């Protein structure tokens, strides 16, 4: 059967002398792995469309087992992501996370989050903030459904709040005693976490966040991933390395064009 799917390349690895095995996140069928014959040759018409981060329409022949990529057509080449080291680092983290969390079968929500996130990074929105959005939005795929609309213990909507890992969400000040390890939140931090979890990426606009705010919120969500789901990604270490090398990141924070 020949399928036409809208997809994004999550990963692409060499297979034999001239082929590639490509993992696509598709809108219609979820995550699929396909063989792209000849795609390793630079002259192949499949060479470009099988690069990581590429967004396109993919014609896949599938009977049983792994499908074969017959044809592909760019929708977006993600040029900024391909050429800017910081954008590449965060986009790599996002595609690796989707690859880890999503299985075969349609997952339109995860597809939309991925596409919106890559488009936002391509449009030079802060890639660190965008990756934070993705972290919060994809949490339900790990089996964790944090309670963020009210107190996880008593259901209260008002008062001061803190984050509790053991309660799986926010606790109000009346319930702080239930967890000795709560992380106190300011009203702004509370609002931001809710927004990261609930509001679609494309409705946020060009959100400017302070470095300290991002680090604080990242620490919470990273702790959930690493300690409650056991997920630690290779590309996270690359981002941490980049952050320790400010000369590499400074250029992009000034938003200078490389053209
Ligand atoms: Zn409470």
Automatic annotation (TrEMBL):
Q: Name one Pfam family in it.
A: RecO_C
The signal peptide here is none
Which keywords appear in this protein's UniProt record, sorted alphabetically?
DNA damage, DNA recombination, DNA repair
Q: Which residues form the DNA replication/recombination mediator RecO N-terminal domain?
A: 4-77
Q: What does this protein do?
A: Involved in DNA repair and RecF pathway recombination.
Q: Which family does it belong to?
A: Belongs to the RecO family.
This chain's protein is named DNA repair protein RecO
User: Which gene holds the coding sequence for this protein?
Assistant: recO
């Amino acid at each position: 059967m020949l399928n036409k799917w809208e997809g994004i390349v999550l990963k692409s690895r060499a297979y034999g002398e001239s082929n590639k095995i490509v993992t696509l996140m598709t809108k219609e069928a979820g995550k699929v792995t396909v063989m792209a014959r000849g795609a390793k040759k630079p002259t192949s018409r499949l060479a470009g469309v099988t690069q990581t981060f590429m967004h396109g329409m993919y014609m896949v022949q599938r009977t049983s087992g792994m499908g074969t990529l017959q044809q592909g057509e760019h929708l977006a080449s993600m040029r900024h992501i391909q050429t800017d080291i910081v954008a590449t680092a965060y986009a790599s983290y996002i595609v690796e996370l989707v690859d880890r969390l999503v299985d075969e079968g349609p997952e339109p929500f995860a597809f939309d989050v991925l596409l919106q996130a890559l488009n936002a990074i391509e449009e030079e929105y802060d890639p660190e903030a965008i990756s934070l959005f993705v972290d919060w939005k994809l949490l339900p795929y790990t089996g964790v459904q944090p309670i963020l609309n009210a107190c996880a213990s008593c259901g209260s909507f008002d008062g001061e709040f803190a984050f509790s890992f053991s309660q799986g969400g926010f606790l109000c000040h009346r319930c702080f005693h239930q967890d000795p390890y709560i992380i106190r939140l300011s009203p702004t931090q509370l609002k931001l976490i809710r927004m990261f979890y609930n509001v679609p990426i494309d409705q946020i606009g060009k959100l400017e966040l302070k470095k300290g705010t991002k680090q604080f919120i990242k620490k919470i969500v990273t702790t959930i991933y690493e300690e409650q789901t056991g997920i630690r990604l290779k590309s996270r270490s690359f981002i941490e390395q980049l952050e320790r090398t400010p000369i590499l990141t400074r250029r992009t924070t000034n938003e200078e064009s490389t053209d």
